[in-house]
Write a structure and sequence with these properties.
This protein is an alpha/beta fold. Helices cover 43% and strands 20% of the residues. It has two domains: 77 residues, no CATH class; 115 residues, Zincin-like (2-Layer Sandwich). The protein is built from six helices and ten strands. Helix 3 packs across helix 4. The protein starts with a strand and ends with a strand. The chain binds zinc ion (ZN). The site of zinc ion has 3 residues, from loops.
Length: 204
Amino acid sequence: MNKPVDKGARAAPFAGRDATRGELVTERISVRARRPWVTVRPDGAVVLTIPLRGSRAAALRFLDDSQPWIERTRARLAAVADVPPPVASAERRALRARTEQLACQLLDQESARLGLRHQGLRIRDPRSRWGSCGPDGHIMLSMRLALAPPEVFRYVVVHELCHLRWHGHGRRFWDLVRRQMPEFEAHRAWLRRHGAALHRVVLT
Ligand SMILES: [Zn+2]
């Protein structure tokens, strides 16, 4: 068999076939994976990760078992994929209050799920980022996040909370984000696609 081996981070372009549906699934062999792993990309494409020392048959069975999860994940992706920012202008004070209220709810929910505690929240309007997590455990969030779809807002909150455990954007950081929010890549993609439009919303 001529399967490419990669170090885990990049998907190898090996097209296999989904045994159940005949649809195309990208298979990648990972030296790091300990068990089969399925992800759904923002465009709905399915990637099956097969451990280098694992059995492909077992991975395909896992893929079969994952079909309900794949369908649910695709539905969630479709729900957020192309919702554009809703407004052309917003009142700054009202937007800040709305963002703060939503942020408090999301921080409560997600920090409880993660078992991580932040030390305070600041709402700002930076030009270049959606949030940050300071070394003192304070979280800063963009007041424009209330203009994004709720799950995109939730992703930014999850992202910053995960920085309480891991600084930087290494593999362990993204593993934690993925565990907390398996479809997070769709929300990152939304921000890349529509982030500039959120910044164009005029605050009065
Ligand atoms: Zn980050």
